[in-house]
């Protein structure tokens, strides 16, 4: 057994248990004559009662029972001492006893094995470390009486291997409370247990047993199992630690550590055979014998020639099969190639047709600003063609008359376009209002860990949903007279209820007055066409009512908060077109612009009146460029510095609006890709190609071997021009590695003859 150790036993982990240990001695006898096994067994049974902290806490509820248990314990110890040998005085002082400490006021029980020769002060010092309480603050009492620090357990009356219970409390519970010590989680059994052993028929003895923790695993050496009771008995070596071998001074090495080379070799063993013949005294039947006659003798030359012919035949068939497989693969590859070409031709044709249909739909039903730019660009092209035709066909007064008629026709076209713009603005405004109301009435959503989306309606979203439905009913025109009166009555009650519950304002009063006016006119039988203006006023005021956070709290999250006028003074500029001060965000600046010019509205108006340019194709090229670069290099920033005007200069001026290889001029099919794919895209590292050419170009590993010298020189020259133009932009100048073109590089770009100068 090891030295006494202390461990806290929590009430949750302590259970009173009655253990039954059976000691069996089995002797196995074997009988030579009988196949069965005989065993002689002698069994001694004794009961062991394990008393843990929970059992003692439940049993010792009052002081009288504690005294009674103590007297019984003393009697048992006396009986046990009579049966054992007499202990000396030195052995008594070094003996241990079970000490149970009841922490007050938590009434948490701690059980330890303590030497009875030590003092109460030593016990306090032992618990001061575990409880983190100074020893002079700890107070130990026995039977509600304080125990002196210089008293030992022997002075108190504790017998060897006995048991005693103290109560421990703190003199300063506010600063140093008695907190229970958490039990060790890795062990379920305490370090000290008290075992009650039955020695005689009516006598028992309590024995303190200390549990020794094994630091390493022990090998299982087997055991025995009783045939009748099925009880397993393990060898004693399993319960005890093995002895450690003494260390030797000589360093030893094992033979297994040496290198062993294994080699396998097959051996053919000799096999002896014999033949039995008929003789005197032995008869062998010849019914199953076979007569074997020798065949034609084949020479080695004939044999090898026959095998050669067979090999040639096999090779011919195999080669025919391989040739057939090769031709089938070529035929299948050709069919796949033709099918792919047909699919590509059909796909390109369908894309072209879809592109024409989309452009026609944009021209017939313009909705966005890009659609109207497309219309004005088409009008500009039509006017230029008509002017050129008039200049070629007529002259003089007829030419002037034709130009006046052309101007009048152009004016009509512009008026028609503006009417479409107003109608589209009305539709877009209605869509924007409906989208705004749907966004306000949308329930709150969040995605759970399993991917399911949960929706929740609050009181504010329900209110916004009711107002949205009411606004949709107000703006609908397909209503009868009675249905319109019901909608107006609902709207009136809604507005009045909110004004009574919250506060009255001029807006709600105006809505109620307009509703009363329309109801009066409906009752008088006024036509619907005469009520359109009034209904539009009601819808406008009710929309303003919905956008007021006092009546619709949900809308406050989607309204733009007005900025501080003091902050606006820092970022405002004067527009030279409309002579108005605008915010810096209202100006469309180029990358090479040095001063603020016209605002966005003035630029759009100037474009529609004079230039009539369409940047939709360049926007599409820039969008494809940004998407491809975002996949290849997410940290690239040059593509986001370019604007539509810069890309137009790059496409139209530098590359001539055509492919660098095939000369294809349809901007719908052109893309800007990297010239050297291992470098980031930049205006001096790009090439304008069609979609098919770009896909093939990006697969090249060596550009110098793939393209001709003339093509490479042309591309390098355009890169030099792009470097010179975009180097003026401060943001792109940082991305330039070489801001100047070296003279050695010019020799690769230009082909010139030497110039000679003659001096006199």
From TrEMBL:
Which CDD domains does this entry report, sorted A to Z?
Ubl_IQUB
Spans of biased composition, class Polar residues? 78-92
Which residues fall in a coiled-coil region? 331-358
Q: Where is the composition biased (Basic and acidic residues)?
A: 65-77
Q: One of this protein's GO BP terms?
A: cilium assembly
Domain Ubiquitin-like residues, every copy: 95-166
Keywords noted in UniProt: Coiled coil
Pfam families from the UniProt entry: IQUB
Give me the stretches of Acidic residues compositional bias: 30-40
Matching entries from InterPro entries are given as:
IQUB (IPR037695), IQUB_helical (IPR057887), Ubiquitin-like_dom (IPR000626), Ubiquitin-like_domsf (IPR029071)
Q: Where is this region: Disordered?
A: 1-46, 65-92
This protein's GO CC annotations: acrosomal vesicle; motile cilium
PANTHER family to which the protein is assigned, alphabetical: IQ AND UBIQUITIN-LIKE DOMAIN-CONTAINING PROTEIN
Protein name listed in UniProt: IQ and ubiquitin-like domain-containing isoform X1
